User: What shape does this take?
Amino acid sequence: MLKTLLLEDDPTLSAEIKTYLHSKQVECDTVFDGELFFKQLRTDSYDVYLLDVNVPKINGLEVCRIIRESDKTTPILMLTAFGEVEDKVEAFDFGADDYLVKPFHLAELLARIQALYRRKAMPQLEMAFVEIADLKIYSDEKKVTRDEVEITLTPKEFKLLNILATAKGRVLSKQQIADELWDYHIETNQNTIEVYINFLRKKIDKEHAIKLIHTKIGFGYYLKAE
Assistant: This one.
């Protein structure tokens, strides 16, 4: 049975989520603060983490960051009332895989959990090494260099760069990128893509005469030495 660990300090919502998930054959343990979350992790293992942001002691974003220091693969779904693009970008930068804004339908929560679990169980094949001009992307090490200088990227920035690189110069629409970058479509995905493209350009292209990240107006983005 798929196992989830829920960090949520609202007892009513926590109970509703647990009861619903159990009815759908998804096990759900619950804790109400960040310290209890890590205490629970020492006693059991889980397939998906569900994290509210505004919780006592250690907030959900910090919990997410700490998890990602040692665990790069277990999916993390943020559950929060903060729905601005900037809030989502911050969560993804901390290592979250998906983001669900309260209030939400429990059926949508289940769909996202299942999508995250399927992606973990059947990871996409990645090329071990990609080279475009003087840019090198090492998928296994999650490392990027340009002109032999290492570039620090967040997990979502790295994933976006890898999506563009493996397209081998093809133009990808915002929707195509969003479908790969997130496990379940959310309304602001396409706006957030623009934010991440700008982040990448500053880190990948800003200091170099040859630009690699390009926009085809009205169509999307591509990565190519031109």
About this structure: The mean pLDDT is 89.
